[in-house]
Amino acid sequence: MRVLVVTAVAAERDAVCAAAPSCDETTLPGGYPLRRVPGPPVALDVLAAGVGPAAAAAGTATALTAAALGGAPYDLVVSAGIGGGFPPGPDHGQPGAAPSGAPVGSVVVADAIVAADLGAETPDGFAPVTELGFGRVLHRPEEALVKAVAAAAGAATGPVVTVSTVTGSAARTAELAARHPGVLAEAMEGFGVAEAAAAHGVPVLELRTISNAVGPRDRGAWRIGAALAALTDAFRTLPGALTAATRAAGESHRP
């Protein structure tokens, strides 16, 4: 199984590679350095594509195209890195549900990858592009993969929103939580990665480890080192989870 892992920055890429005993380097068209973790059973190619959804989509598309033209297309794309966790709060529209939230140090696997600020401001509030009659703002990863990867990594599952501007106020935190019930985390690349993967017909996942709480910015409370270490730990579990999920899927299709 060939998996492309896309991070924003080199520190996240290196944290993913730290889960493997060796990580070689090659260069993609456009000068993107690609780190390679050989399989079997799961071979990972790890790319630091840049910050934000546009850079993430461009880098992901470059890697997917190069792999397809080389005759070795990817089976899965994973958007990975650290992110902000939403504080616990009642799940909107879910009476009696347990509070959702992702504390610092925890791991999240997205069951919905959402473009949170792709749309327009209107007198009645924010309108996503889908309400304007075009585009899309949501990708849903395969449920079986989400469950398998989350179980192996000890992760929570829920929506992860992609933003172009990191949230820095309580008001914005509350607005996003109200618009996206059960949201666990925000980051800046997942939707861009998912768009590129969808264009190539490749399944996608998003995995985040939480370095800080979403809300008023308090750099003193951020735990980036701990989140990167958690990212390494999560990726140590990924090959086994993917292998088990693939085996289970194959068995379910047997006559």
From TrEMBL:
The keyword Nucleotide-binding does not apply. This is Futalosine hydrolase. Its EC number is 3.2.2.26. Residues 49-218 form the Nucleoside phosphorylase domain. It comes from the Bacteria. One of its GO terms (biological process) is menaquinone biosynthetic process. It is an enzyme of class 3 (hydrolase). Transmembrane segments: none annotated.
